[in-house]
Amino acid sequence: MHEPIGGGASRLFIRNLDTRGRGEESHFDLDLKYTPTNDYERGFGSSYVPDTSEVVFSPANVSAPGRGLHRFYSVTGDVRELEVGQAEGLDAQADGSAPRIQVERSYAVLASSSRGYFAKRGERTDGDYRLWHLAGRDFQYEPSDVQVRWTRELPLRRFSGRMSLSDDSRWLILHAWNFQVLDAATGDTVFEYPKAGDKAAELLRLASVMTADARLYDVGGVINSRIVDGALVLTRRIGSTASCTSRSAQDHKDCVARLRRRGIYRSVLDVFYMDSIELHSQPDSRFEFDYDAPCKRVESGSRQLQVRGGKLVLAAVPSRPTMH
User: Fold this and answer.
1) Higher pLDDT residue, 47 or 35?
2) Which of 3, 18, 287, 323 has the fewest Cβ atoms surrounding its Cβ within 10 A?
């Protein structure tokens, strides 16, 4: 939470969201650079790290994923900085009261101020493939130290450097055309998938959730991927709404609804459970949903996708007490 304190600045209140924790809370006075009332969103985005022990302000809208200055505020009161791409090699320096570690020029995704995953572009190998140098690193501040957890080289197809972590930081996703999921602790590949560029191969991998007469057109395309609550979820669109684009907003909505009813346009979630995933696993289940539906308030009795007993299910959403 941000609280204005005058002069265009604000105070940041953060609390450990881990229900197993002791509910620690810390307060930080922010300068103008990190205060929302000064449109800091144009330069930074803020969020909790996966284990909710820190809030990180990271560069927003950068062309190189993860590059730039990341500022961490801990629920225990510490402030740390990790800067990616501004120095060759590793260095430690003080910036005011916040210790800073600098990391060589690379792409990055950070699990916390003390752990990150990095990718450096190597030589092109074959066609759309390029060799990438990947590493998992741990950081220590005051005194500064860097420990390399693992390194490996991996040929990736049309990889932009974009990586993401599962909600528990256990799995590292490489968003390449030859989509990869790595064990974040070891760097080993636990799952790969032909996300783009080879519809025939993708159709074979979808056999468990497709009909026997499915065509290449029925594969559609993956538009989002994430791992949450122990399940890898690929969001897929099948078909096109191109015939509806020239209509008014309401006509467009009605047109898309008609395409859905006719089965011409669909949105589905392909789900792979991480506790049983293998290198070339097929989806464990598929759910169809309306991706283009506007957001609406969740009321008691509504249903949403939840993981229960290791399975993704549609479950009722309990009512919540009204805030006064």
Assistant:
1) 47
2) 323
Q: Is the dihedral of CA 256, 260, 263, 268 positive or negative?
A: positive
The CA distance from 240 to 231, in Å, is 27
| Residue in this structure with the two tokens 């120095």, named with its chain if needed | 87
The most distant pair of C-alpha atoms in the chain lies apart, rounded to whole Å, by 66
- Return the SS3 of 195: coil
Secondary structure of residue 254 in the 3-state scheme: helix
pTM of the model: 0.81
196 burial (CB, 10 Å; 0-12 / 13-18 / 19+) is middle
In order of 19, 170, 212, the CA distances from 228 in angstroms are 18, 10, 30
Q: Which two tokens stand for residue 108?
A: 């990055």
Please, are residues 262 and 276 in contact by the beta-carbon 8 Å criterion? no
Q: Which residues share a beta bridge with 273? A: 231
Q: Where are the beta strands (DSSP E) in 158-220?
A: 163-165, 171-174, 178-183, 189-194
The answer to whether 274 and 230 are in contact (CB under 8 A) is yes
Length of the chain: 324
Number of CB atoms found within 10 A of residue 192's CB: 17
Which residue's structure tokens are 């799995």?
171
pLDDT tens by residue, 281-300: 999 999 988 766 654 444 43
Q: Please give the Cα distance from 315 to 241 (Å, whole number).
A: 30
First-to-last C-alpha distance (Å) of the chain = 17
Burial per residue of 264-301, b for 16 or more beta-carbon CB atoms within 10 angstroms, e otherwise: ebbbbbbbbbbeebeeebebbeeeeeebeeeeeeeeee
